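User: Could you walk me through two proteins back to back? I'd like the raw sequence and the structure tokens for each, with a short line separating them so I can tell where one ends and the next begins.

Assistant: Of course. Protein one, sequence then structure:
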Amino acid sequence: MLSLTIEEVERHLHVRAAFLRALERGALEELPSTVQTRGIFSNYASFLDLNVDSLLLRFADGLQMRHRERHPQKLKRGKPIKVNEKVPPLSAFVAGDLLIGGGMAILLILFTIWGVSRVIVMRSQFYPQVTAPAISNILIVTSQPAASQEVTLIPAQDTPSTATPLATVITATLPANVNVEINIAAVERTYMRVSVDGKIQFDGEAVPGTAYPYEAKNQVEVLVGSASGLSITYNGRNLGLMGNFGQVVDNIYTAQGVATPTATPLPTDTATPCFSPTPTVTPSLAPTPTGE
């Protein structure tokens, strides 16, 4: 039905054509061992896109039928079975293991009941003693005046400090051509942008527990969305957190120190006064009265 020849199947499965023809005819005597024949049959059925499990079951049934045909079982003639019509005793129904198991279960139940009752009795016999003082004693003590205590004031004196420094400040040695060394430790998840000598090296979200080291010749600029999320180590000195939670901080770290860029103010519109021309008053001549 698939328009395939045995030779084409042989090229695909790498199985000899003689074995495939023997499978098609059902000639099991021309095939190798049963295990090899089962493998060839499974591969051939899978290649033809057939139900492999169903065919293997039928193949196994066929092998069993063939074995029964070659080796038929002979019926053995034995003695007839005698039926005992008497009722067996009770000991035949109760086995020894059942008796031992039942006895152990009963002992376990009895031991549990005894333990619970013992715990209840011990709890009922235990009465804690009252350790709180009597109310009358408290009233007597509080009614008595308290003894006055004298306080001696010791004048403060300037004493020279004899404390020795606990630690020695060590100045970090920077590599050649590196004047600024910044180590940023992310404490919380926050936005961060880092520019090294004017080039952006990081622009995104800082991951807590991650260190971000940077080295620069001139300056390192760090912009953070929440200043409490980053801890700064500048040229070997731990500066701590950059600020408070939710505070936007933009710091520039140079060889001279830490600077904060100031925003350039935008030019404001200046109101220009408008002057209106002075109106020119034209004098008018009063009419001269004429006499009659």
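----
Protein two, same layout:
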Amino acid sequence: MERPAWAPRSIDISVPSVSRMYDYYLGGSHNFEVDREAARKAMEFMPGLPKIMQANRAFMRRAVHFAAGEGITQFLDIGSGIPTFGNVHEVAQEASPGARVVYVDHDPVAVAHSRAVLDGNEDADIVPADLRKPGDVLNSPQVQRLIDLNRPVALMLVAILHFVEDADDPYGAVAELRDALAPGSLLALTHASYEGIPLPPERADGAVDVYKDIRNPLVMRSREEIAQFFEGYDMVEPGLVPMPHWRPDTAAEGEDPYAFSGFAGVGRTA
């Protein structure tokens, strides 16, 4: 198998990666045949997966604009993936020049790419760390350098929590991050759910199984379970809703039904 020049030597390019599959769904070029194969297999069961990823990205951009409009100039994006056009730092720094952004990901390809993309950008950095170990994120030199935890931060957990199994205590990790944030901070998250998918659950299960097979289980949670991540936050209007319904820029009438799979919301710490 040909190793592209941009692929760090340390990575195994024979194993699919969730962040590279996401890159493929979004039409990016930083993925391998093994990722495309897994993504296409998942799409046999759930052909609207690219649409779901696009809805995630669109929500992320609206949430960053909202945070910037609220005067927040610090962003912590955990599970940031491979930076594609219109990523958090671009949206935040355009809306608010001098905004500081720290990305966090444990995929070596995502980390290597983020370093390349952020080269020369003094106000953005990447931490190679895992959401399941919030202490590693908060104590990283990158967060210490760029983020002042005594001022409000926008914490972005977009399409990441559904890859953390209950055994790894995602609620505990999110609570630990919340407790480190100043009052007036925001949590913006999206999460996969069977609710809203325009398919019978057993059909959607086929796509879920593909992720299980590549040892990245996709945990589908109910709206109620997703709402629990916002414990200790006041929900920002319109609350926890399908992604296109969260403060849409335009009427979402013509939206693909797949865009309404799962939920998005923003909360504010008191």
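The radius of gyration is 17 Å.

Let me know if you want the two compared in more detail.
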